[in-house]
Amino acid sequence: RDYLMTFTTDLIPTNGDSIALQATALTQLTQSPNQLTRTASMLGSEKCYQLASTLSSIATSVPYEDVQIAATQIAQCTSNVLSAINGPLQQRTNVLDLDFSRANTLPSDYDTDLESVWSNPNLFADGNDFSWETIEKNRNIYYQKQAANEICTEVEQTISLISSALNIHLNLDQSLTINTSSIFMSMETISVDSLSNKSVEQIGEARIQMPSNLQFSATNSSSLSVQSIMQPLASYGNSQSDLKTNLSRSMSLSILDQDKNEISIRTDFDNPIEIIIIRDSNFIIPPMALQNVTSFDSNPHNQLFDLYFINITSNLSISIHFEIHPLNNNLSYLFIYKFDNPPLLNSSINQIDGWTVFCPSSETFFGNIIIIDHRFNLDFTNESIYTYFIDNQKTMTHRSLIYGLRELNSTELTSFCLNSTQTSPPITNQRLNFTSDYEHRVYTSACYYLDANNNWQSDGLLVNKF
Questions:
Q1: Domain check: are 199 and 143 in the same one?
Q2: Reduced to 3 states, what is the DSSP secondary structure of residue 464?
Q3: Which of 107, 165, 380, 405 has CB 3.0 to 4.6 Å from 56, enough for a Cys bridge?
């Protein structure tokens, strides 16, 4: 593939048929992203951009069907090379030996380029680790990131060009869809009034829901172009640290006026744009951990709650999901939590940031008492799982969370699970007493966007439970 890709650079596209033919060949060459080197990925991206640029310039003289065929192949090629260059960075594919060798081969201008980054060990060391193995590994990562940023920018330009070529052939209320294994792309021309409350469908159950109350920049256009794209692997970006985007899909939405200028939309949490992204099928939810809490009584203690610590230190905001599976489904629990410090709750101290009561009922209470719908279960069994969710706006600025759980006695169960008027948590000074063990699972979720500098950001985003 690396060798064959070099021959594509000399092929000059002249008409719609030659563009479609070359784009199809590129799609075939790039269809296995885990086998594409950096050089092949960059050549493929450059060639796709060239084809898209030519297609855009002749789109008015090419039949719609030919434009769509060429655009579909170009879109697949760009998505393939983007996945290829991000795969090793996201640890979804292995580093290729040829890439590693090229990154650590002495450059030809080594003796003359005194500012060459290749020979700067400080750039590739890992803290105080200046071992040759570490420097070689990080040097390869450096060049991979550099190539990824270049390809990411070029792919955006390529997508913009093929969108422009396709949009020429779309009249009001017409739409088209490109649906392949490597990319999903939809375009639609609508009236300005139709944008409010519009649902932009993606593959599967993924979609983008516009709010009913829209505020956007003034435009003289009578129609708008709504474009959305979903790709199987998110870009690595420049701001990676503890971000877990290697099992994430990416989705984009663009709204353009008749002059192909982007329309700026203003929203808030009361009137948000809702984006539903389906979890990557490669993500495996870990099993629940069994907690042998009935053994507490075998040792002397004065604990009121079974406490757990979660480190939520992150540069960007995250949400937290809690799942509790009682081995005895007839039991109820009090769940409390506090950020950055242990929660304290007894007759004289109330230092908690939130609470809920888990009840063995299918009813739904209001206020602070949450009754979990027993139908919800990530394991797809008939077993009951209590769930609780803390969104990313509440976790912002915090570094840790400590939560506690205790089993309610029969009196508390009757008082709190059958009485929806309770506004304060049940309080006791008695040490905890579990009559049955339980399983639990805690995981985080988040949503990020890439800014103009290719950095992941989370401000202005609210992650919901479903």
A1: no
A2: coil
A3: 165
Tokens for 203, please give them.
Answer: 């593959």
Let me know whether 102 and 148 are in one domain.
yes
State how many domains the chain has. Answer: 3
Domain boundary among the residues 256, 282, 308 is at 282
Quick check: is 462 in a domain? no
Kindly report the pTM of this predicted structure. Answer: 0.83
* Token output for 188: 């639609």
Q: What angle do CA 143, 147, 148 make, to 5 degrees?
A: 115
Per residue in 149-193, pLDDT (tens digit) is: 999 999 999 999 999 999 999 999 999 999 998 999 999 999 998
Instruction: Give the domain range for residue 189.
Output: 170-282
**Does any domain span residue 322?**
yes
Same domain, 230 and 157: no
Q: Are residues 277 and 294 in the same domain?
A: no
Q: Residue 313 is which amino acid?
A: T
Q: How far apart are CA 404 and CA 311, in angstroms?
A: 15
Q: Give SS3 for 123.
A: helix
d(CA 35, CA 17): 28
Q: Which two tokens stand for residue 302?
A: 């004065």
Alpha-carbon distance of 393 to 461, in angstroms, equals 8
CA dist 368 to 4, 19, 197, 199, 396, Å?
Answer: 64, 61, 31, 32, 22
> How far is it, in rounded angstroms, from Cα 366 to Cα 384?
20
Question: Does residue 370 sit in the same domain as residue 416?
Answer: yes
User: Residue 242 — pLDDT band, cuts 50, 70, 90?
Assistant: low
Token pair 């200028």 is found at 261
Q: How confident is the model at residue 267 (pLDDT cuts 50, 70, 90)?
A: confident
Cβ(123)–Cβ(117) below 8 Å = yes
Question: Is there a contact between 80 and 183 (Cβ–Cβ < 8 Å)?
Answer: no
Instruction: Give me 332's structure tokens.
Output: 């109820």
Domain boundary among 135, 167, 199: 167
Can you tell me the mean pLDDT for 92-111?
A: 88
Residues 447 and 346 in one domain: yes
Percent with pLDDT over 70 in the chain: 92
Structure token pair of residue 50: 């060239």
Q: Is residue 463 in some structural domain?
A: no
Q: Do 69 and 5 fall into the same domain?
A: yes
Specify whether 250 is located in the same domain as 105. Answer: no
Under DSSP, the state recorded for 255 is E
Check: CB of residue 387 under 8 Å from CB of residue 397.
no
Q: Kindly give, in sequence order, each residue whose CB lies less than 8 Å from that of residue 380, ignoring residues fewer than 6 positions away.
A: none
